[in-house]
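**User:** I keep going back and forth on a fold encoding question. It is easy to fool oneself when nobody else works the same problem. Could you pick a protein and write out its sequence and tokenised fold? Could you put it straight underneath, so I can go through it closely?

**Assistant:**
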Amino acid sequence: MGFSSVTVVLDAALVFSPAVALVVAALAWWRIRRGRSAARAMLDSAADVLAPCTLLPVFALTLFNPGSGGGVVLVPFTGMLGNGLGLTTLYQSGGNIALFVPLGALLPLAYGRRLARWLRVGAAAAALSAGVEILQYALGTGHVASVDDVLLNVAGALLGAGLSWPWWRGGPCHRCSRWCGCPRWTSRSARRAPGGSGRCRRPAGSW
């Protein structure tokens, strides 16, 4: 993964950014028509659209960027320890981590916060990374399909989830299944309390 590849990804991001912004605006408009507040509709729509977009650099740098080697490494840390802790190893490891940071930051905020759990973010990142490694080997891209890459990608996703954690740590409301700002334990205790309705604390129509 050289600097030229990164430049190509940045150029592509600039080219497709207007189309992405248009999709976000259209989805936000649809949600506003359904009664969601403008701010919440825009934030949710941005997360839903940008989360899959974070995979485009991953595909561009791994599947569409031919390498000069190949092979499979199934023993963890073999590649990193075998090459030593030089600048090349640090650069490659840092790149594998950085690739999945945006995905990990957006996954807990997207799709109704269904993935707003550490384990779910890690599992999703592991599945996606393993799929990319399998495709690299199957398509003969010249890249080494390594378990190290999967571990580093998962670490990057969890790092990204940690960066966005203040915005998703409460989780979706158990009563309304939306991101309403009610902590999980609040709605649960309300249901268990005598006479408690367990209803969402957020007023209707304020989405």
